[in-house]
Amino acid sequence: MLIEIDGLHQAHDQRTALWDISFGLDLGEHVVLLGCNGSGKSTLLRLLNGLIRPDQGTIRYDGTVLDRRSLKNGSFVRRFRREVALLFQDPAAMLFHATVADEIAFGPRQFQLEDPLDRARHWAVEVGVEGLWDRVPAELSRGEQQRVALASLLAIEPRVLLLDEPTASLDPRSTGWLVEFLLDHPATVLTATHNLSLATELGERALVLGEDHQLHYDGDVLALRDDHDVLLRANLIHSHRHRHRRGDVEHRHYHTHDWD
Amino acid sequence: MHVPDGFIGPRTWLPAAALAGVSTWFALRRIRQTMQAEAIPTLGVITACSFGLMLIAVPLPFGGATVHATGVGLLALRFGVTTAYLAIGLVLALQAFLLGDGGVTSLPVSALCLGLGGPLTAVVTHGLLRRVNERLARFVAGWSATVVAALLTALVLGLQPLVAVDAAGEPLFFPFGWRTVVPALVLPHAVVGVLEGLITVMGLDRWRQEER
Amino acid sequence: MRTWWPITLYSGVVLLISLSHDPRVPAAVLILILGVAGRRGPRLLLRALITTALFSGLVTLGYVVVALDQGNAPWLWVLRTNLRVLALTTATLLFAALVDPLTLVRSSRWLQTVVVLVLAQITTVRQLVGDARLALLSRSPGRPRLSALIRQGGSIGGALLLKAQRDLTTRTEAMTSRGFFLDADRD
Fold first, then answer.
1. In angstroms, rounded to a whole number, what is the distance separating the alpha carbons of residues C51 and A6?
2. ipTM
């Protein structure tokens, strides 16, 4: 296993954020982390990226436990930061350069990769932001910022991509682009989302975090779609009364309101 | 209140620029030493906060005037004098160079009076009064920061007729002495300071509530 | 290197106007600045007038009244001071229009990152304050009462502090995640 989590407990502002979480991620796996807002998805991703330390339990990356000692070890941290990349829910929070070019080239320069500017240009083209090369990242639309942030992470060719609600700020066309882009990506990808209808497109396996911050499901994403119990408990679907257009028929059924 | 360029002479603003430059250098060195590289996001975020605080405006019910807050009390009590000084100085510089709001030659004077004098006053008065009553201490911190900043500015302006006159003894820059300018600036700011004091109290109240 | 020319010229203009007491000097410089500014000249001059009107107007009026009362002629001071104020302010506005603020801090990567972070948040911060103001207006039957305005001012102040705290956490995490703090020396 590339990433192993065992018995993770986490509190945030004296409230439970995660409770007894255990799972593993293999190299090259694409996994969807589903959960409604407040279920602990972002906290879990921050833990996996070594940005916060677990209150209880262990997280191992490639055999090394992420703790105070390993995260102070210069050579491990350097390797870890290059190999595990986190795309934040608010892409603007990640951008701090004067131009898109500098933003994307920052990673390659930071990790002393060859030809940082060429790499940056390559990934700008891959992600479709080469037209924004000289623009100021802060002035871009949210969707454009999302792409620039993604390009900035991809430019260092990480082994693991942690994506926090990557489609939340994207229009349908950009969402389609992202789904296609991730489809055959060789990295291990863990995508956190509450968008059930996209889940089957973003991975083969699904993890579901409930409102009680525990793991309610770890298995095939297609099988999850039919498991109404889990989905209801996790507040990923709802049912409400509605009228159909033809006639006066009124009924309820489970669905989500995301486009399909 | 921004003093435009042209009212403070180079005999004042040149040494003020040197003093502001040196004190800024020391302040930067200090936060880089205490926060290391995290000084960058810290200063970036707090400066933006300071910018926002200066946007808080209360239209007065008469005369169509609007009073702007500075947030100096809030910044000083929440983040300390050094960070507040750097943040306020940077905001004033950005306002001058980005928006043309406020002079460039008067920038060092504004930075020292508002950015340094204000926070220092806030922290000192708060320290003295907090044992009496915390909320009173916060109010006085905000109020006195405003009044002292205005007083210091008035002292600098009132200095001009003494240090810069032509051969006939006529003022070359700001024409009024201390007897006129000190009450003219300090009295209105003593009233405006009430707003600042209230904002300091209520702002910290809200921050404390939600931060818990 | 390109930015050194505007900075040097601008500094030269500021010093020239400040050190000279002949009103013809700021007048000539103002004409030159408006010439360089071209079509945006009138707009810059108007902005300069608006931003300095209150302070300049009050001080000029006060000085004229006092001087006339004392039997002195204030006109040289009025001309010299107001031309100086306008020339300096217009020069700064033109400089700000021509020079990207980031280039002023290009020599320090540290400072440049700070300025980029500030500029990136200005719109959000403006929106926060603006939206709060509009929200109060939409909830007020008429003009909001002074007490409500003050209370709102305090609430906005607190909201800005909270936003700063959250933003700082998120930005520090994001910069940590991207390896920004790996090197000890930034410049």
1. 62
2. 0.88
